[in-house]
Amino acid sequence: MPKKRNFPQLEPAKRRSRLEDKIEDQLKAYGVPYEYERHKLKYTVPERVATYLPDFKVGPIYIEVKGTFQRHGASGSAEERKKLILVKEAHPHLDIRLVFANASQPIYKGSPTTLAKWAVDHGFLYADKGTIPSSWIKEIQ
User: How far apart are CA 3 and CA 112, in angstroms?
Assistant: First the structure.
């Protein structure tokens, strides 16, 4: 009888935040297939080509989960916003949407611009309260 081989079990990719965990739980509850951080999208930063790793891809929709743009301080905040704009410009045919934990939060401390206003001003569809709207799910089912 051949010896049984033990292969290592692959662990699922770990989410980077509780908000991403929440979005994944919603997608599972809806029973829709999704991929987590599987697609790298190239975009050009002046003088260099970079890649961007969207959080989720659900059907044709890319979903980026943002609790805040303030993770890296004020300069990091601006870099995160600029990166999203550059990715959108590099891939105008892609449907990239944002899910915010609190869309009424300012883009940085003291700013009059909220995450919601920034998203609208830059042509991103967005959702609030860390919840994917059922209308988005209906679009892909």
Answer: 67
- Work out whether strand 61-66 and strand 95-100 pair parallel, antiparallel, or are unpaired: parallel
Label residue 75 left, alpha or beta by phi (over 0 means left) and psi (-120 to 50 means alpha). alpha
Please report, as a single letter, which amino acid is at residue 61. I
* Cα maximum dimension of the chain: 72
Of 55, 68, 56, 79, nearest in space to 115 by CA:
68
Closest CA to 101 of 76, 122, 70: 70
pTM of the complete model:
0.70
Domain borders along the chain are: 22-140
Q: Which CATH class is domain 22-140?
A: alpha beta
Q: What is the pLDDT of residues 38-95, one digit of tens each?
A: 999 998 877 788 899 999 999 999 999 988 776 555 445 888 899 999 999 999 999 9
Q: Provide the β-strand partners of residue 45.
A: 48
